[in-house]
Amino acid sequence: MITVYGEGRGFRVVWLLEEMGLAYRLRPVDLLAGAESDQEFLAVNPAGFIPALRDGDVTMVESIAIMEYLLARYGHESKSAAPLAPAPGDAEFPAYQQFLHLGEAGLAATIQLVGVSRNFAPESERDNWGARWSLDRFTRQLGHVTRRLARAPYMAGEVFTAADISVSYALTLARNFAGVELGEAEQAYITRTTARDAYKRALDACPATKAWLARMAGA
Known about the structure:
The protein is α+β, with helices and mostly antiparallel strands. Helices cover 57% and strands 7% of the residues.
């Protein structure tokens, strides 16, 4: 049985598993309560960050690496109507790879500092140099997504792929956690990707994420 430890970026993994139609178990991890008291989780990921994945003898961390592993290992078993990752020889494969990784390295990881500063830092430290630098970097990286959406409905062209899970998560994080005002194209894109049945099933499977999004919507 595939076990996913933690929500947060683990939501990407759960969403992908729902798209693929694979059986899994979500093991909650409460980082706010302190991962140091969760010995089962620390045995999987001693660094204490989420997500982590255990699949038989395989243990992995990093959401994008986990997604690539699942697609490579179980892609042939996927129940998705269309491939969630283009073949390496496909014309859209380079764009797929770029946006799959941009969703974390260029977007989510960058905006995280902004969100943490705005939500958790002391009032006097919220508007700090690092957060301003990160927001500027995020805004410039977001331009790649904006330009892509001007040419195609999804990151890899005309069909939804795992790259859209990566980018949609990052844009939702930016909007709901860091207060970034997204443009019409990005808003429409999130509406499109989150209308999928697999997204709705993933949200039902991740109660903390669902509750967080509901709170942000009511804020």
